[in-house]
Amino acid sequence: MLSQLLGLALAGVATAGAAPQGIGGNILFLMCDSMDGRVLDPTSSVSERLEMPHFRALSDRGVNFVRTYAASPQCVPSRTTMFTGRHTHEIKAWANEQGLAGNPRGGLDKTCVHYWGVDMCQRMAKEQNVTFTMLDAMQDVGYDFEIFGKVDVGAGVVAKTTWGTATGFHGGPTANIMTRTADIRKPTKPDPITITNDEDNNVHPEDQKMFPRCIDFLKNAASAGADAKPWLLYCSLNIPHPAFQTNATWLQMVHEDKIPNPTWPNETCFHPADSYMSESKNVWREYSEEQILKVRKTYYAMCSETDYMLGEVIDAMHTYGFADNTWVVFVSDHGEMNMEHRQVWKNSMYEASSRVPFIIVPPEGMPGVRRGVTATNITSLLDVLPTLVDMAQTDIAKPIHGGASRWYPGHLSGHSLLPLVAADADAAARAADYPFGRSILAQYHSNMGNTGSFMYRSGPWKYLVFGRHAYDPTYVPQLFNVDADPEEVHDVSDANPDVVARLDSELRAIIDYNAVDREARTNDLTLYKYWSKGRSRAEIMKAMGGDSGYQGFDDADMKKVEDWVKNGGQ
């Protein structure tokens, strides 16, 4: 069982040593932010709510992994796990304020130093102990790695690019992240209605400027000589990340009549972890059905706009003659709650937040591969890095064979998905010792969550545990049967004690979740003490009530923070 739960299986895997030079095709890596994976799952009713012609055509040409999950559903924690192929508790990039502090090729990330100082960044880098990223690994196997758009990981990556954006530190010290477990139940975000505009005629200008640069890269690459190195084009947009902004052009792609009003339990029935998130996200009030629909349809329109922009890049790949020798990969970093469970943004382990799209399309001329397949294997964004490195070592003129020896840059917590792209996927995956019946772990330790949360996804089951339960018995574990209850409104833990016991045992075999929660809380407290040192109480209170703090922060809240410090971060 443990071989199914832990990192890369040993058969056919080689690590360390000199990297082989890539023999694979080019890779067009497309990414967006905050796309609910269900919008591209043809087995989910969510996919019926909007048109996404480019991505659906893409999935018809490859394998659509519809049960893929973020390893930590927030921008920086998710992207750092994807870029390193390792879990959050392994790399300790816990939150949006704390990306990868060290550059694997030497030195510190300059943005980290700007916000946190040399000493703290050196401490972070030592604890994180990251020796490679996706960028390093692909360069090691002989690829040119070109970055356009949102990165958000730190590790000095953006500084190496011309068009990379988002450094991975989100303004540095953030009051409502560092003090999240002090349980200040006040809004930290604007009311979603105030950030929803469905008549914006200058929508997402930053992304409108970015995707043409990806197209320009393809145009220029087409004129390169035959001896040019293979390339990985990383083309990443910020939408459909909130704020919720759209216009009639994209709203016409949305089927308003198929968007249901989400089921909201009575406030007294909310799990305390959920009620905290709802309050922190400023959704803990009543809304009219019209207001809820406005937010929801605007978000789906943004997804359709994303489809258009990245669809233009896909079309350019064909126009400039790369379809026969180029892999296409599409992912998002996390989803969007979109008013489900009285929430917006991400951060939650519910499907809308934690589930993401993941599509792999082999080169058009490649033999022996699956096309037009909806794969229901449970997969993770941790699988992205090993899959890309595997692509670089796969001859696109030949069928994929499982079990071939592969170089990987070091320990990885994910698996290459290429065996599941092979025409004889079962045989290839078995030869590669791919873990059939695989279960995956996700976790969250950042703002709008007053407790570490851990998800274990296995078969139809989603098992959730909370670090706060170690000192607050109301934070009980939850169990959902996602197949039978896709809205996740029925906690069936009491009715299935044997399932709970089995899943908890399997989860504990992977991670000591109470110890990890303590480690994350200790990190928060360390950063808070570093940030607050030398500040007066009045200065701290002012910052706590500022843009990165809590709305209406008062003296009683400050007392809770002071008690939290005295109690060691709980």
Overall SS class? alpha/beta
H/I helix tally: 19
Task: Report the sheet with the most strands, covering strand number, pairing sense and barrel closure.
Answer: 9 strands, mixed
Low-confidence stretches: 1-12
Helix content: 25-40%
| Range of strand content | 5-15%
Beta strands, count: 17
- What is the 3D form? globular
Average residue-wise pLDDT:
95
Ends distance: 34 Å
Which value, in Å, is the CA radius of gyration? Answer: 23 Å
Detailed description of the structure:
By secondary structure, the protein is α/β, with parallel strands linked by helices. It has 19 helices and 17 strands. Strands 2, 3, 4, 5, 7, 9, 10, 11 and 12 form a nine-stranded mixed sheet that branches. It has a four-stranded antiparallel sheet with strand order 14-15-16-17. Strand 14 (440-444) and strand 15 form a beta hairpin. Helix 5 crosses helix 6 and helix 9 runs parallel beside helix 12. It is globular and about 70 Å long.
List keywords for this structure.
570 residues; alpha/beta; 9-stranded mixed sheet; 4-stranded antiparallel sheet; 17 strands; 14% strand
